[in-house]
Design brief:
cell membrane, binds adenosine-5'-triphosphate, 3-stranded antiparallel β-sheet, alpha/beta, 28% helix
């Protein structure tokens, strides 16, 4: 879904005076006595693509929900700045089945050129000519393309994505990575992408954050040259490092092995995927 969230209107402390798209200091979110986010600090620059990984249950979705303005019950913070114009994409596209694709994309858009913008957005995601199709006529990957179009047609300053490709097959996922990169280069939102897929994080992100014990435990710029295809020693080392930080021990040589194309990470202690 591409929810057009209201941002953190109530939580803003002095607005975005820092030049960052997101700036969080000392964020605490507890459920009962349990602090899922515990004095978390995070900054995302305008146009920056940040991937957020972490073990199941580490609080990734909770953080996204706070930033999206979906979760208002924050326990505390010192600073909590995010833009007003935020879009969210989830694992399922959440299209309205009774509306055609173009209407799904333009829903809530104001202005005389909404239809034109919607058509352009659908073309950008490779669905030109499908404006009058119904969501049910689309594959899962195509539905996620519509969800991306619906997000980006609003030109968000911040795009929050919670495992947007988690339900897609490996081949479709790779195509969607290329599409998302293109879209982000064209629209330049700041992006915070939650993923279990270390290869997805490496393929897409400028920076990978590891969430652990309620905080950002590691902050790793990705400096591999494009295209970031698996196979190089530098890629394998980075992949093994990220997996190790998630509690998965992988010999770097394994990165070239049969599982290298998937890179899915769901640490053994599990939880909901
Ligand atoms: N509404 C809620 N009430 C109580 N506990 C909650 C609630 N929402 C989340 N939690 C707890 O907060 C913790 C973090 O959940 P969250 O969904 O943010 O983790 P996650 O890192 O996104 O996990 P996953 O990778 O499995 O999706 C979990 O232990 C979860 O049970």
């Amino acid at each position: 879904m591409a929810t057009h969230a209201g941002g953190l209107k109530d939580g803003l402390k002095g607005g975005l005076t820092t030049g960052a798209a997101v700036r969080i200091e000392g964020l605490v979110r507890a459920f009962g006595d349990r602090r899922v986010l515990d004095a978390l600090d995070l900054t995302v620059a305008p146009g920056e693509f940040v991937a957020l990984i972490g073990r199941s249950g580490s609080g990734k979705s909770t953080l996204l929900r706070v930033l999206a303005g979906i979760d208002h019950d924050v326990t505390g913070y010192q600073r909590l700045d995010a833009p007003e114009n935020v879009s969210v994409v989830f694992q399922d596209a959440r299209l309205l089945p009774w509306k055609r694709l173009l209407e799904n994309v333009t829903l809530g858009l104001d202005g005389p050129d909404a239809t034109r913008r919607g058509r352009t957005a659908l073309a950008e995601v490779g669905l030109a000519g499908r404006e009058r199709a119904w969501p049910v006529e689309l594959s899962g990957g195509e539905q996620q393309r519509v969800a991306l179009a619906r997000s980006l047609v609003r030109e968000p300053e911040l795009l929050l994505a919670d495992e947007p490709f988690g339900a897609l097959d490996a081949l479709t996922r790779i195509r969607m990575h290329a599409l998302l990169r293109r879209l982000c280069e064209a629209h330049r939102p700041a992006v915070l992408l939650v993923t279990h897929d270390v290869d997805e994080a490496i393929a897409l992100a400028d920076r990978v954050l590891v969430l652990d014990a309620g905080r950002i435990a590691a902050d790793l710029p990705i400096t591999l040259p494009a295209p970031r295809a698996p196979g190089s020693p530098a890629y394998a080392a980075l992949r093994a490092d990220l997996l190790a930080r998630l509690g998965v021990d992988v010999e770097p040589a394994d990165a070239d092995g049969p599982d290298a194309d998937r890179g899915g990470v769901e640490p053994a202690e599990g939880g909901t995927p």
